[in-house]
# Entry
Amino acid sequence: MPETRERAPGRPAKAGRGPRRRWTNLRPLLVLVLLVLLAGAGWGIVYHSPLLDTRTVAVGGTGTLPRDQVARVAAVPIGEPLAGIDLDAIWARVAAIPRVASAHVERDWPHTVRISVRERVTALVVPAAGRYAEFDKDGVRFGTVDAAPVGVPVVETDADTVSRETLRGVVQVVTALPPPVAQRVRDITARTRDDIVLVLDKGETVVWGGAEASDRKALVLAALLPRPAKFYDVSAPDAPVTRTQPFPSVAPPAPAQPLPPVAPAAAVSTPITP
# Structure
């Protein structure tokens, strides 16, 4: 008997399947639209809403500088959206203050601009018109004080014309000195980087010379100071000199004296023999 096969009847389509598929296809687009709307709302809140405006300025890291001076120079626009504040412009204004060595500016949400500064440290002072000009370790002039700070060397030079290179040389010398010796330095004369002279607390004079080999010169000077002397020369550290009297100055050569006039030679006649 022949086999017969009957085809199973097809499943009827579920009602509503078409609209559900269309919804599934539209879902990414709707999510994207929602994200755009949320981003726009967030942008509006951040840049236009008073909920995140600038209300305060916080200044830190100051020592000699008054905080209100830093805030005044920073000129932060109070009331503007914090997100729109130009931090680079604020930094440039603060960094231009002579006593400021470095500055950092940042937003502190929700309402504050925070400014942190690091002030220059006085490495030496130079007499200037009855006061003292302050210089840092890099030879940068940044302030003026009425009296020399305790423990800061006084350099006898012209504050208006001295080069940074010369002052950096002086700082190199002072930094190389052992603390017990550095505390005894009262005055420094520096006409150039290669002509540095120290004066100690008991009036001793130290001819240092140039700033090179300052570590070696400092060790030699520390070894020589126990010897009673008034003058020390460590400009050539391998051949130092100590004296109880001032070093002789090199006198200019005396002008040449004119030679006395030479008398004319007498005529000598020689008889001719035949």
User: Anything to note?
Assistant: The longest strand covers residues 100-108.
